Amino acid sequence: MVTYLPRSAWNARPPNGGPGNLTVSRVQGAVIHWPGTGSTSVIHSKAAVASALRGWQNFHMDDRGWSDIAYQIAVDQAGRAWTLRGLRTQSGANGNNDLNERYGAILLVLVTGEQPTAAMKATTRGVIADFRRFFPRGTAIRPHSAVRPDGTDCPGPAARAAIARGDFTPTSSEDDMTPAQMQELKNFIEARSQAYALWVHRQLRTDLSAVVKAYALDIKNYERQTDAADAQRAAAAVWATAPDNFPTNTEPKPAPDPGPEPDPSAEPYLLLPEPEELPTVDTTPDASLADGSAPAADGSAPAASADPEPAGQPESGSDPEPNPSPQQ
């Protein structure tokens, strides 16, 4: 991951307008530049690089009349990346407007006879990898001398040789994200996911509650309709199996007449049952009782007696009967 020093790190002047951002569909690649001052005095320290950048910006804006320093990013021998116009902004260094629209511009802080260090190469690969993330079609890496119509020695023989060897071509390690970048991306995705889930919950909670209430009401209505339909089917089944003489008058019978209301001022009385009629008693004297004999047990008249046997001589073989006593 490349760390870019801001414009304030080299005390840059604000740009004077500018062409705006590159168009993604037009970008074909990045072009490598150098200052081309002809000096052999190295520019290695941070302060020296910042001073050099301010001088080149003044030259481009004051002498050339450009809106800003011409390049997008500068990379020094220590591997520091300096923000100039920025990777997204169209440069003014490639030779004409068409080239500036189709290519980015990366400045290598090299002097005549100096070889790019490993740190410069590694940072440049990272910068180009970032450039490709913004502009996926911009895969070409070319020296300025390969695209400028009027010809130029830029970016010098050492940088051209490094480009030809692929020293500035990003590898899979530069294209891949570092663990820190992965963690940052993970945290970002988790935060966004939680925020989205909370938003969805708040949006759906009210709607879901309304849906549940409507569903419950529909169920109740369905149950009522089903009960009514079942009752109708049951009644139809009863009428279908009823005999011909089954009464069809379903009107309710009138309640019996309760009679007049009792008079609360009348004295209460008991309702006793009617007395039973007793049989008539015959008071005529019975003639059979005139001679003083007792009537028979069944009420019939006594029979005429024959001559009695002598007293004390009962019929042989039979026990003497006691004299019957009259009924009491």
From TrEMBL:
<feature type="region of interest" description="Disordered">
    <location>
        <begin position="242"/>
        <end position="328"/>
    </location>
</feature>
<feature type="region of interest" description="Disordered">
    <location>
        <begin position="1"/>
        <end position="20"/>
    </location>
</feature>
<dbReference type="InterPro" id="IPR036505">
    <property type="entry name" value="Amidase/PGRP_sf"/>
</dbReference>
<dbReference type="InterPro" id="IPR002502">
    <property type="entry name" value="Amidase_domain"/>
</dbReference>
<feature type="compositionally biased region" description="Pro residues">
    <location>
        <begin position="253"/>
        <end position="265"/>
    </location>
</feature>
<dbReference type="InterPro" id="IPR015510">
    <property type="entry name" value="PGRP"/>
</dbReference>
<protein>
    <recommendedName>
        <fullName>Peptidoglycan recognition protein family domain-containing protein</fullName>
    </recommendedName>
</protein>
<feature type="domain" description="Peptidoglycan recognition protein family">
    <location>
        <begin position="2"/>
        <end position="148"/>
    </location>
</feature>
<feature type="compositionally biased region" description="Low complexity">
    <location>
        <begin position="285"/>
        <end position="312"/>
    </location>
</feature>
<dbReference type="GO" id="GO:0008745">
    <property type="term" value="F:N-acetylmuramoyl-L-alanine amidase activity"/>
</dbReference>
<dbReference type="InterPro" id="IPR006619">
    <property type="entry name" value="PGRP_domain_met/bac"/>
</dbReference>
<dbReference type="GO" id="GO:0008270">
    <property type="term" value="F:zinc ion binding"/>
</dbReference>
<dbReference type="GO" id="GO:0009253">
    <property type="term" value="P:peptidoglycan catabolic process"/>
</dbReference>
<comment type="similarity">
    <text>Belongs to the N-acetylmuramoyl-L-alanine amidase 2 family.</text>
</comment>
